[in-house]
């Protein structure tokens, strides 16, 4: 079962980063390369504990749907989303936020199980784990850019 861990320092308050990470609108913008869009459940604004969102996206040239549910939330330090329907056999995505001297340490921990047994494990080794790492990193860098830009605009005002 692969586990992807990404850690970023973001020059913005923990509350800001937490809300950007659970924003449906920011998620859609950060994943534009896969044409990801919400199609059911919470489709805009900030997702809350117990809510679901169904995403439609194109990965590997195939249109797919994935439904995730927020199963844990401790504002503004942590939330967890888990797949309740979609291509993975299972996934759990933990988002952690810690206030640090000059902003926020954001840590993503994404653990998943691919479908198809041995074939899925081979796909993980050959390309899927790297693909998911890059996908999550690109999303997190988008959050970092938006958060830090908001801070600069706030300081410039």
TrEMBL record:
Keyword Transmembrane helix recorded: no
Tell me one GO biological process term.
cell division
For this protein, the record's SUPFAM superfamilies field holds: Bet v1-like (SSF55961)
What are the protein's UniProt keywords? Answer: Cell cycle, Cell division
Gene3D superfamilies referenced in this protein's UniProt entry, alphabetically: 3.30.530.20
Domain Coenzyme Q-binding protein COQ10 START span(s) in chain numbering: 10-127
Q: Does the keyword Lipid metabolism apply?
A: no
InterPro entries documented for this protein: COQ10_START (IPR005031), START-like_dom_sf (IPR023393)
Protein's recorded name: Cell division protein
